[in-house]
TrEMBL record:
SUPFAM superfamilies: JAB1/MPN domain
Pfam family, one: JAB
Protein name, as recorded: MPN domain-containing protein
GO terms, biological process: protein K63-linked deubiquitination; proteolysis
GO cellular component: a single term: endosome
Cofactor: Zn(2+)
Keywords: Hydrolase, Metal-binding, Metalloprotease, Protease, Ubl conjugation pathway, Zinc
Source species, domain of life: Eukaryota
The keyword Lipid metabolism is annotated on this UniProt entry: no
Similarity section: Belongs to the peptidase M67C family.
PANTHER family: AMSH-LIKE PROTEASE, FI19924P1
Species of provenance: Dimargaris cristalligena
Domain (MPN): residue spans on this chain: 1-128
């Protein structure tokens, strides 16, 4: 998966007003398939509601309509942890499960601007992560799982950060 290097800085700039107020911001990573490789060429920042540790998209039909109109695939998602470190919370792994179930190559980018490392690119392990999350019936927003290898940093070769142009569509 080819990702524009500038996506991190540009997303954080768009999220800055929320980050300054300790509120998460999320976006949808979109792109195309060319020569059997995914190219992230659009960052959608949808309407959303958020707190210091959650972010939920709203008006999903607007997201889908834009993607259909521009022939874009959902390649994953991106969100901030305004005051926390860079990791995938239990809510994050449950959210990412649906992305990776639709597209096994899907990624989750977490930006933690107040910490080092300031970002991470993650995927659920398969096995065991996808199976553990699929079987999880805990309804609490944040809860432990019986394994600590549910997700991993995206392995080299799966993601390539490169310099190329991309579009940001802020729907908020």
């Amino acid at each position: 998966m080819h990702i524009p290097f500038d996506i991190l800085g540009k997303f954080l700039a768009k999220a800055r007003s929320n980050t300054d107020r300790n509120i998460e911001t999320c976006g949808i990573l979109c792109g195309t398939l060319k020569r059997n490789e995914f190219f992230l060429n659009t960052l959608l920042i949808p309407k959303q509601t958020a707190t210091s540790d959650t972010c939920t998209t709203t008006n999903e039909e607007e997201i889908v309509a834009y993607q259909m109109e521009h022939d874009l695939l959902t390649l994953g998602w991106i969100h901030t942890h305004p005051s926390q470190t860079c990791f995938m919370s239990s809510l994050d792994v449950h959210t990412h499960y649906s992305y990776q179930q639709m597209l096994p190559e899907a990624i989750a980018i977490v930006c933690a601007p107040q910490h080092e490392p300031s970002y991470g690119i993650f995927r659920l392990t398969d096995p065991p992560g996808m199976g553990i999350i699929s079987a999880c019936r805990d309804k609490r927003t944040f809860h432990p799982h019986q394994s600590d290898d549910i997700y991993t940093a995206s392995e080299p070769g799966h993601v390539s950060l490169e310099h190329f142009d991309f579009k940001i569509v802020d729907m908020r």
